[in-house]
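Entry:
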Amino acid sequence: MAFPVKADVDANYVKLMQIYLDEKSRAKGAYIGVATHDDNMINATKAFATAHNIGKDQFEFQMLYGIRPQMQEQLAAEGHKMRVYVPYGTEWYPYFMRRLAERPANVWFMAKNLLRA
């Protein structure tokens, strides 16, 4: 299923994060990696975890190498687990181009973040 409207994508992302971070899922062994560079998704995750007394060791944030390094450092400094994905090998460039092509806004997002670094 694809959500063509970003607000719907975001709402579903938060809904899924809440499902997998809830007590029932964690009791079954679920461990969630919240893969996002979006402040709203990061803040929603932190707020949900705080409101439900979910320890920072019960989930992790995941981001691409080189994108929002200050946010990666901030999350780690706050005690959150932080995993950084580093595409490498012969397929890194096709992977990168697919990510850009998936959503035209990714081009602007990449340009902004490269200038921040």
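The domain at 6-86 is CATH 3.40.50 (Rossmann fold).
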